[in-house]
Amino acid sequence: MRKHLARQQRRRWRWRRYARDVSKITEVAITAALEAGAIAFEGFRAADLEIDIKADKHDLVTRYDRACEAHIRRVILEAFADSSIVGEEDGAHVGTGALTWYVDPIDGTANFASGIALWAVSIGVARDGEMIAGVIYDPVSGQLFWADERGAFLREQFGQGEDRPMRSRGHADAGEATVALNFPLARDLVHFEALALAQYAEITREFGQVRGLHSTCIALAWVAAGWVDATISFETSPWDVAAGCYIIRRAGGSFLGYLDGAPVAEGESHLAPHYYAVGSGADYELLREVMRTQSLRPVA
User: Fold this and answer.
1) Engineering a disulfide at 145: which of 28, 160, 176, 221 sits with its beta carbon 3.0 to 4.6 angstroms away?
2) Which CATH fold topology does 2-165 show?
3) pLDDT (tens digit, 9 = 90+) per residue, 209-264?
4) What's the topology of domain 174-294?
């Protein structure tokens, strides 16, 4: 009996220590996102904003993307010096510890560069490959979406408000649903162009509302909050989706990463190049068919 009680006590102690560790990780991610958002906001709609092209005219970057990522890296490494960091702008920093941070300093750079208020900071954290925390901060609206083992929460007032639990929800009837459609983009028309255009037409006929947000993490955050019923996109990177996929799941929604026409294992979904996310209580066969066919494309 004493041995059993001792084992229970050790398990409780390990859980409390784990919870404290995750809480600290989440707070570091929140701090980094809020501070990076403030840096980026200084350049939003600035008259002298300089815009550079990365891969092509659809792939833009500004000095604020680079400055925000550099700041996020500093905050992370000051708190967890042995972390690995996978960022959009500066590539990978390989550490010796268990934590990997996926960082998109400004998700929706094209919107940011155009003065469109749909962009956000995204930070997802994995421990030994398992997602354990996610933070998305929209500096224009002042909305902070975050999740860890405690659940999924929305904090408003630029990070100063109270945390309100989020519950993802979706309409069962596609005719009543709103889909945030990051498809078809120019990169999608390289593959199966006629099919992509036909599928887009079918989606606009079937769904009640179709919106192009052009910020992956905002679309995912809005699915988690229950404001959008579903979203899909192709040829994304882990820093685009790591935070959002975790927040959606903690809010009760579903996130599926796709490769070669089928969903991948849940633990690897943030590494998959294509995704389908949907609110709790909803699933749409048309979107699943789009995912099945379009995810057959070759991956660079």
Assistant:
1) 221
2) Fructose-1,6-Bisphosphatase; Chain A, domain 1 (3.30.540)
3) 999 999 999 999 999 999 999 999 999 999 999 999 999 999 999 999 999 999 99
4) D-Maltodextrin-Binding Protein; domain 2 (3.40.190)
